[in-house]
Design a protein that fits this description.
- By secondary structure, the chain is of the alpha/beta class.
- The protein has one domain: Rossmann fold (3-Layer(aba) Sandwich), CATH 3.40.50.
- It contains 7 helices and 5 strands; from the N terminus they run ααβαββαβαβαα.
- Strands 2-1-3-4-5 form a 5-stranded parallel sheet, with helices on both faces.
- The chain starts with a helix and ends in a 6-residue tail after the last helix.
- 37% of the residues are buried.
- This is SIS domain-containing protein.
- GO terms for molecular function: carbohydrate derivative binding; isomerase activity.
């Protein structure tokens, strides 16, 4: 009985490893695709660095799972010593001309993202929009001062090439590829910013909250 249990656990571990590798490969392939804008990594690092140089605030916004990725970025920007804020937080300051809004609209546009980008632009702030559909013509794309193309599947095109039956069920459904790509992209951004801003791992770690 114990031997069968060990075999079952080994098979399950192999299955998990294979599935994880497939997910990682699918997300990594996003960054090998051609983009309609300069690479999102360089755009983000350049815009954030420029904002920091003029002591501006950085605001982030997204909806759903995209919003969770944006919050994760905001946390790391704060750990890097930057003035970073999530839109709608109780302590979020007003946005102004020296500031930057980083927003995400994977499928091309959302009503709230459109509105927030409009408010940021009307107050003179820069807007960096992350999207998989840079040619969507949405309000937020038009209002962005910088558009960063992340060429990943979202709910705007998750039915493209869809097959039939259980065998064709995607490992990463709906917007999961885009959302996973954002997480990986932001880790690259934080790593590069740490170098550019001269922030050592020890200094970054020291800014982590102890109220947990």
């Amino acid at each position: 009985h114990r031997e069968r249990e060990r075999e079952r656990m080994a098979e399950e571990s192999q299955s998990m490893s294979k599935m994880a590798a497939q997910i990682c490969t699918q997300i990594a392939s996003v960054f090998a695709k051609p983009t309609k804008t300069p690479p999102p990594l360089s755009l983000l690092v350049d815009q954030i660095t420029a904002t920091a140089a003029q002591n501006g605030h950085i605001f982030v916004y997204g909806v759903g799972r995209e919003g969770l990725m944006m919050k994760a970025l905001c946390m790391r920007l704060a750990h890097l010593g930057l003035s970073a804020h999530c839109v709608f937080d109780m302590t979020t300051p007003p946005i102004g001309a020296r500031d930057l809004l980083i927003a995400s609209a994977g499928p091309g546009g959302f009503s709230t993202v459109d509105a927030i980008c409009g408010v940021a632009r009307s107050n003179g702030a820069g807007v960096l929009l992350l999207t998989a559909q840079p040619e969507s013509g949405s309000s937020c794309v038009k209002q962005a001062t910088v558009v960063a193309h992340v060429p990943a599947q979202t709910m705007a095109n998750d039915h493209d090439g869809e097959g039939h039956g259980e065998e064709s069920r995607p490992l990463l459904p709906m917007g999961s590829v885009y959302e996973g790509a954002l997480f990986v992209l932001f880790e690259m951004v934080v790593f590069r910013l740490g170098e550019v801003l001269g922030q050592s791992p020890e200094v970054v770690r020291a800014r982590h909250t102890n109220l947990e």
